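Write out the bound-state structure for PRP.
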Amino acid sequence: MNGNLKLAVQSKGRLTDKSLELLKHCGLDIEDYSERLFIPAGNFSMDILFLRDDDIPEYVQDGVADIGIVGENIFLEKQTQTKILEKLGFGRCSLLIAHPEKTKLKDVKDIEGKTIATSYPVILKSFLKKEKINAKVIELSGSVEIAPSLGVADLICDIVSSGNTLMQNKLKGSFKVFDSQAVLIGSVKNSLPETKRKILSDLLLRIRSVLTARNSKYLMMNIPKSSLNKITGIIPSLKSPTVLNLADDKMLAVHAVIPSDKFWAIVDDLKTAGASGILLLPIENMIL
Ligand code: PRP
Ligand code: ZN
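---
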């Protein structure tokens, strides 16, 4: 056993590639993982273990892995003594109740008395309880989407990401039970030794800066000097914008980091206020 922090990642699944991509953006040197169960990060005191996603919460709880990346759906379903250290913003999907195209399901009350197949009985039952609905829950570990056509269940409750699986099985999503994304989890039972805590806090700092950078853009534009106040009033900047002189002394360049999703809401106002040569650039990393 080395003193490296052990991170569990889903082996061959929806979250595998994006989990490794996040780690690479954090500056970790990770080799091609294909078919391997275990790889060390070349330049960081961390080992990556590839495990079945359903097993990750329990392994983290028991200290087989120190931390793990799983879907929030698995985290919630497994009810282990683990906690979310950070929401990771990728692998977004929803847990939906879906019905065969030909049956009608208008109101959530129409679920009453039905049979629902799912791999998420814990989450589903708590949803049904909250909605005060009596329905029979059948737990299946996989291929839930074929349950209605086999006559095993009236409805299903499963993860929907692109919607392809539902479409291929002539099912329609009707009610949302839960919105999920990838999360980083740690044990609440096992406390980490000081050395691993330091590695984890370094990793968290890097992850947070990558996530902030992903949600931010670098905005650049030229403006007439006279409209500086107006323009800075429009920009939803994370910090005060940078203002630079240009060769043309009636003009200024303004640079600012803005939340990515705000750009299209302000671009017309910027143009009306006289901004020109507007550029929006991605940010690779950002330390706050
Ligand atoms: C879910 C779900 C479907 C698929 C839906 O499985 O059970 O099979 O994803 O995705 P789509 O809407 O893009 O077609 P998941 O990836 O969670 O894998 P697992 O249950 O086998 O671990
Ligand atoms: Zn799984």
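---
The longest helix spans residues 194-214.
The CA atoms of residues 145 and 168 lie 9 Å apart.
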